[in-house]
Amino acid sequence: MKDLKKYLDANQERFLNELLELLRIPSISADPKYKDDVRRMAEATAEHLRAVGLDKVEVCSTPGHPIVYGEKMVNPKAPTILVYGHYDVQPPDPLDLWTSPPFEPVVKKTKLHPKGAIFARGSCDDKGQFFMHVKAFEMMSKNDTLPCNVKFMIEGEEEVGSKNLEKFCRDNKKKLACDMVLISDTSIIGNNTPSLTVGLRGLCYMEVEVTGPNKDLHSGVYGGAVANPVNVLCQMIASLHDKKNRVTVKGFYDDVEKLSAKERKRLNDAPFDEKTYMKDLGVAELRGEDGYTTIERTGIRPTLDVNGIWGGYIGEGAKTVLPSKAYAKISMRLVPHQDPKKTEKLFQKHFESLAPKSVKVKVTAHHGGYPVVVPTNSVEYKAAEKAMEATFGKKSLPQRGGGSIPIVAMFDQVLDARTVLMGFGLDSDDIHSPNEHYGLFNFYKGIETIPYFHQFYAEMKRGKK
Ligand code: BES
Ligand code: MN
Ligand code: MN
């Protein structure tokens, strides 16, 4: 491993510059205008896989954005690691809140990243993180220390719900056959507090449309006599939480996993400073479900949030109008044992039941995803713990991630492979927000840690057989 560290130190400038090049490609999966850039990003990713010595590298077309694949089989007896990541990014809007353009990466120092962080859309989520695996592979390959077979599957639709990945996995079960899936697309607690993600929340994403009168009306001539769908929608939304900030959708909590006091304590043992958290976010108090800590509210409890709401006149100046329609996008984060399909139905029924006769409502579902729990007693997890300890010099804490990676549950079912979530970002890296960044410390620490994982995993698997 000493040789690898030397190789890393000697090549760190180049690794960084290669990542910066990838960050210049605006691979925004949600916006059809960027379709060619997304493909260009897939080609560039494939080129990197070829350059570091992976075989059978392909850019696999799907009805949506392509999936990049590559593999290196070194020994049929060695275990096979499937690395999953995504090369697509979220839209950068609102652009005017970026301190430098989102697709012109720059390195700047911050309080949490005194050695510098790369500012660009996708730097942390997930280009900077999947690229660590490419460079870790290069180091192992160049130093003739590839203890495991490695497959890469880097997709371009994670940020829009991985619509085509499940079919791809089902159609290519043989090609993707593996002993485990390794993903870096989550966070650690802090650069001094390594952690491994042991759970992800699921997602149920809905859109609602509320219609009042059959056309926009003069708000003076008709106001007061006819239901205003924007007013009604706001009332309906307000009723979706009770005084204790619990979600009122009937049946919402029925299947929620109950954690033992011991497990709750273990999660709450992680360092967390509420004052700094509030200060960083510019809020005077925190708000969430009664009876739970912030770590629990974002990790083990389900939530409901409005992501966007619109209707009526939102242009310059004032226009007096009683709008005909109002809309909202509402998402629910789910925890283990909750089912996104079931939640969809519960929400639809509940929301329809809230509507007064004066309006009509239409409820539609967007993509969803199942929650994930990662067992901590597996060989995979133990190898990850050992790898983190080797490079951070400290034990990692188990952490529940609040975000979602919907396809992880599918890997379990379709590929019968367990996942290790070994991400290196920080929750404060502003993913999906303006000024997304990724610490240089984190980027290099990831590259350093991944080969240890391969090494320990191969050894521990051998020991088990
Ligand atoms: N990498 C994130 C998920 C994440 C971030 C998990 C931080 C844990 C910690 C992923 O790219 C993401 O943003 N997922 C989406 C879901 C998707 C269906 C759009 C999310 O969580 O909103
Ligand atoms: Mn991601
Ligand atoms: Mn994301």
Please give a structural write-up:
A hairpin with an 8-residue loop joins β4 (106-108) and β5 (117-119). The protein has two domains: 2-200 and 371-461, Aminopeptidase; 202-256 and 302-369, 2-Layer Sandwich (Alpha-Beta Plaits). The two termini are 25 Å apart. The protein has twelve helices and 18 strands. It is 34% helix and 21% strand. It has 465 residues and is of the alpha/beta class. The longest helix has 25 residues, at 440-464. The strands form five sheets. The chain has a six-stranded mixed sheet, sandwiched between helices. One manganese (II) ion binds next to loops.
N-to-C order of helices and strands: HHEEEEEHEHEEEEHHHHEEHEEHEHEEEH
Average pLDDT metric: 97
CATH homologous superfamily caption of the largest domain? Zn peptidases
Q: How many domains would you count in the coordinates?
A: 2
Biggest sheet: strands, sense, closure? 6 strands, mixed
- Uncertain stretches of 5 or more adjacent residues: none
Bound molecules: ligand BES, manganese (II) ion
Total strand count, please? 18
**Percentage of residues in strands:** 15-25%
Overall 3D geometry?
Answer: globular
Instruction: Find the CATH topology of the largest domain.
Output: Aminopeptidase
- Which value, in Å, is the CA radius of gyration? 24 Å
- Helical content stands at 25-40%
Overall SS class: alpha/beta
Known CATH architecture of the largest domain: 3-Layer(aba) Sandwich
Give the number of helices.
12
Please report the distance between the alpha carbons of the first and last residues.
25 Å
CATH class of the largest domain: Alpha Beta
